Each structure stands twice: as structure tokens, then as C-alpha cells.
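Figure-free illustration: sequence to structure, shown twice.
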Amino acid sequence: MHKAKGSYRPDRHNDDEPTPIKGKSTAPMWVLGDAQQHWDVILPMLEGMGVMAPAFSPGLALLVNSLGRYIEFENKVTETGVVSVTDKGNEIVNPVWAARNKAWDQVMKALREYGLTPSSITGVRACGVDGGKQHDGNADDAKSAALRLVSG
């Protein structure tokens, strides 16, 4: 685009930037049981955005594992409450709440790496897989996939 406009400056571009090898991304064996369903929802989104390649599978696996843990801890806190009572009758913050918060942080960091938050989408570039083209699906398909992701 810059070259077409005549504003290209080599000192502002990395022409030697590595390009990931094209191919089918598969979930590593260490993806946790329930996290596989999140892999199956998020992978097509990333492929449609042109930001997924097999080299990025470990990062996506970390994202879906963290998302699975977050949902697990969120459900546990919903069952038991944010406040716990010790054996001496003192009220304390439920330890699961702290684990839930840590999982939330991990999920949000991973979502930002892939441009899956509104504020992070502009910081992610297509990796050249499939030419970086947009997904051929319509907006309703993307919205449905996103709703499946967050609704569990």
C-alpha cells in the first residue's frame, strides 16, 4: 500500500520478516478436554482473519486451556461464592476467586495476542497465510461463533 502511494520508506519496514509456513493447524495433545471445544470455535475465526498458521498452534492451545480453566473457576465461584468462611468462622476471599482472576488475566493476554479484543484488532497483521484475506463467511456467522465462544 505504501509503495502504491509513493510513501514507502525501507527503514520503516522489515522486508526480511519471517512468513509462517502454510498448513492445517491441529490442537496439540496437551490441550485439556473441555478446551478442545474452544479450539474448534476460535481456530476458524483466526484462520478467517488470516492470522493463524501451524507455528502458532502452541499459543492457541495456551489460550484455549486458559479459557477452559477460567470457565471452570468461574462456575466454581458461582457455586460457592466470592467469600469463604474458615474453620474458625472468619470470612475470607474464596481462594478460587484468585485463581479465577489469574485465569482471566491469562485469557485476556492471549486474546490480545491474536487480536480477539476490540482494542487489539488493529495491532495484529495477517500472516500471509491464504494471502491475509478476510473469511468468506458473513457477519452473522462470525457473530454466532463469538456467541458460542462466550456462552460456553
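We now fold a second protein in the same way, so the two outputs can be compared directly.
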Amino acid sequence: MRRPVVLWNGEDVTLFPNEGAVAHRALAAAFHDGDHQVGVAAGRRRRCAFAQLPQITSVLPLGVIDYEMATYFSVVRADNSVTYTGKFDGLTVGAYYTFRPIEEQTTYDENTTGRFGFAASYDIGKQYRVIATYDRVESAGGYPNTTITGKIDNIAVGGKANFGEFAVSAVYRYRKTTVANNPNVKSHLFTVGGTYKVTPALTMGVAYTIDKLSGTNDVTLTRVGLKRTDDRWQQFAFLASYALSKRTNLYAELAHARKGAVALGLGADGGSYDLAPNKSNQTAAAIGIRHYF
């Protein structure tokens, strides 16, 4: 039996469990029948790709996207979208399509497509999971006169293995970005890490990430590289999370980045922090309490 859900100024967190807070200024509706779900959202949605394609978040080393650099792995922001999620035994597939803003279509005579993506994950029992995703972001309206970056192709593959209270994960992401009047920039990002459930409430994790850029120059390095000082960026991260309840947890996080700014999900738009002038390395720490509505 299908059950439509419509909420103003937010989304039903039971249908979109990876969204976190509900204040995304969107009207969302979802129709699901057993293992299949179709969703439609009009308005601003900060994490459309992850809400409907949670496969990649499930294999990230620190376990949840809120503590990791979301913009490094997928497009994250995708407004005015149509989504699909389906489950077929151990296989889960997802897809999304977003419409370009009306002002871009009318002002610059652009087509209707803003971005789209696909994802699939496959579980081998409860111990192993492998995933693959693809995202395509179209150039902004009026490119190259209005923005330096154009089309983006984003491909990711990864896996996770569970051994009792211990889990290990690894993800590789390839990204190609077209840049106005400059060579295309290619990114090869690899992250690996693990978590250990010390107690039912306390989880600790570590992660190492390296990103190698090619095709960069003085113009594109800081624009495409997200506040880098070199085409080879590395980060080490540690996380401790203590669950006070199913929806509330205390957390502490420590990270050190070399050749650029620290990049964690706690940064602006899930990306990197600002790098101090004349500095190439950065260390950051954060403690806090998080509640999911």
C-alpha cells in the first residue's frame, strides 16, 4: 500500500534518514510501495544526493557524513529533484535528477537539466558491502562568462567490512572538472579508515584521506582544490562519539591537514575551513552535541 508524505519547510526524517535537521526550506513528497520509493522535492535541499543515495555514506570510514567532507565525495546540493530508491534482495539502487533554476533557463537559454546521478550497493550477508556511484553536474547558466568552473563528472567506488565491533572502510573517488580557459582538473581521492565500538554507546574511529590533483595551475588550484596550497593534499582525522539516546550524541573530533585546509562535515557546507595566510598545514578540533529531529 502506498503512503504519500508531504511536509512543508522540511522533510520526513523517516523517509530521508541522512538529512539530519529538517530546516531545508523544501516541499517534499514521497511515495513508496514495499522496497521501492519515488520522491519529489521542490525547493532548497542541501543533501539530496545523500538522502536518496545513502550507499556512499555507509562506507565512509567515520560512518556518517556529518563528520566528513561531503563535498569531496558527491555533489551534495541538488534542488528541485526527482528521486528513486529500490531494493532487490542484497542489491540497492538509486537515482536522482534535478532541474536547472528557471532564471538560468530563461536568462541564458540553458536546458532543463541541473544535475543527475546513480548509485548501487550490494551486501554480502551482514559483513560486507560494496558500492558504486556516478554524479554529473552541468555547467552553471552562462558558463564560462558567469563562473570559472563548468561541468563536473564524479565517480566513486568503495567497500566496508564488519568484524564484530570493528569495521574497516575504503573509498576511491575520481572527479573531472572543466575550467573556463584552463585545462580540465582531475582529482583522485582515496580515503581509508575504521571504527571500533568500545561500548554500545561509545564509538571511536580514525580516517586517512589523500587527494591528488592533476591539470592545476595558479588559477584553478584554490578554486577547484578547495583551499589547497599544493596538488597533493592529505588529512588525518579522529572521531569519538557517545550516544545519549537514539537521536542525541556527544562528539569530539580532531583533524590535521597538510598542504591545505582541514575538510570536515562540520565546516561550511560540509567542506573545508579557511586556511590562515601564509600557512600550508592546519589542525582543528571540535566538540559538541548533536540532536536529529
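Summary for the second example: The CA atoms of residues 147 and 281 lie 28 Å apart.
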